[in-house]
Amino acid sequence: MLVLIGLLPCNCGADAHSPEQVVKRYALLVNAGQFNEAKNLCTPAAAAYLDALSALITNLEEGIDSSLVRVEAVQCTLNPDQQTAHCKGMIDDGFERTQETYFLKQENGQWWIDRQPETGTLQSSEETISTEETTQEQ
């Protein structure tokens, strides 16, 4: 009987360094406003994104209430190179549930949150202001 128990799949003590666990820790830290701690789980590109996010949130009048935040149903898919992963997680902040996407990169056996460049057309606020000024002049 002991042999059979050893063969049963167990999710006990899930790997703390798995992509799913890294995403869960990262999402909880970010939603708690603990950006410096979250940066410890990031590549330089993702850390730079958190710096920008931190500056934006610091300017808000209200603080972050993370008491209701839950990270649910994180699922990761390893890419064919086995060194990168694409993860989706459901975040419940107590008001709404949203699906978030995360990209991870493995270096030296450790999974890191990575930031992929945005695709598509981007407009900065300078471009918008410039367009408005041109319209007003005409």
What shape does the CA trace take?
A: globular
Query: What Rg is obtained from the alpha carbons, in whole angstroms?
Result: 20 Å
Number of strands: 4
**Helix count, DSSP H or I runs of 4 or more residues:** 5
- Give the class from helix and strand content and strand pairing: alpha+beta
Query: How helix-rich are the residues, as a percent range?
Result: 25-40%
Largest sheet: 4 strands, antiparallel
Low-confidence stretches: 1-13, 122-135
H/E topology pattern: HHHHEEEEH
What's the pLDDT, averaged over the residues? 77
Describe the strand arrangement of the main beta sheet, using strand numbers. 1-2-3-4
Report, as a whole number of angstroms, the end-to-end distance.
85 Å
- What fraction of residues sit in β-strands? 15-25%
Describe the structure.
- This protein has helices spanning 2-7, 19-31, 35-39, 44-58, 125-137; strands at 70-78, 84-92, 97-107, 110-114.
- By secondary structure, the protein is an alpha+beta fold.
- It has a four-stranded antiparallel beta sheet.
- The chain starts with a helix and ends with a helix.
Features:
single chain, 138 residues, alpha+beta, 5 helices, disordered N terminus
Topology (SSEs and partners):
Elements: H1 2-7, H2 19-31, H3 35-39, H4 44-58, E1 70-78, E2 84-92, E3 97-107, E4 110-114, H5 125-137
Antiparallel strand pairs: 1-2, 2-3, 3-4
